[in-house]
Amino acid sequence: MRNENVAPVDTMGCESLADRTATPRDQRFQTLVALMLSSQTKDTVTSVAIKGMQDNMPGGFNLESVLALDPPALNAFISKVGFHNLKTKYIKQSAEILRDKWNSDIPDTIQGLTSLPGVGPKMAYLCMSAAWGKDEGIGVDVHVHRITNLWGWHKTKQPEETRAALQSWLPQDRWHDINNLLVGFGQTICLPVGRKCGDCKLADRNLCPSAVVAKTVKVKREAASLKVEGAEDESLMYRRIGVADKLEVKIEDVDTAVPDIEDLGRGPGKRPSRTRK
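That's the Endonuclease III homolog sequence above. Prediction below.
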């Protein structure tokens, strides 16, 4: 199903953004920066920012060039990504740490990566896999956390709980793939809002306990009468209308939506209103 639906992560995900003509060291640095930019930002926006840095940064996109840039100039390169002011600060600070403590390369340990400003466990595990080829843990973002809970694989409240739960049983040779598979699935079918359960093969095969699919239900309706104003004949004053023993309606026309896990705890009015035809 993922192969049939190309997702943004497949062509613009952080793992694929580094310039393959650059040195391995510079590719690792570009991957780290791409992951730092990706937080709260769509892949399409992150990829454009990285491409702009690769094409236009004086001296090329590498650690030395970032160190040489003034913060406003770096901020201009990433101005379209979410929280770009804070990320400018984090990238500049991280570049200095890499120069001073890591021989101008990125750390090759989870502890080292998470010591960098703005780099959490999710980024660190993804970076270890993409930059160093080491699958030491599962990168759990909002899609992985949300979808695996929807599937009933576990009941977790935080991404780190989800990572521990998945790593307790999922074979390690699957750790690299699961993030990409579920992120793409969340971008194309199992959307955070408005899941396309009708297009999902898991729903067709009853593999998703949270699926909401179109069904036909039977609704009983009582006979109704309508008073006809102005009728002179008393026998015509009332006319039977809309009498039906059974009426077929689509379940999607009934407002029975169950909130996604990301919406739990939010007040009313946060979800977009349903448009009725």
